Amino acid sequence: MTAPFDELLASTSLLSRLITHLTLSRERHIAAADATSPHANRRAIGIAAAMQPSQLGVVLERNGRPRNRKA
Q: Which residues, 6 or more positions from 47, have their beta carbon under 8 angstroms from its beta carbon?
């Protein structure tokens, strides 16, 4: 009876690692898109990433991009 439980735990672990990888990859792509130009459309980037502006700012900062270009 423990085999299904162990299989579910293993699957859950794999899915968690995949989600983490995809999240990090998405963040790198967001930062790369922002770095393409000093006038990159952050609104469009946020829409594509399905993020609110505040979330986008956090992601950009975490990846070495300025949260606010005016600073």
A: none
Q: Would the pTM of this model clear 0.90, i.e. be above it?
A: no
b/e sequence 3-39, b meaning 16+ C-beta within 10 Å:
eeeeeeeeeeeeeeeeeeeeeeeebeebbebbeeeee
Q: What are phi and psi of 32, to 5 degrees?
A: -65, -40
Say if CB 2 and CB 35 are below 8 A apart: no
6-16 tens-digit pLDDT: 999 999 999 99
What is the Cα–Cα distance from 19 to 71, expressed in whole angstroms? 33
Q: If you count them, how many residues does the chain have? A: 71
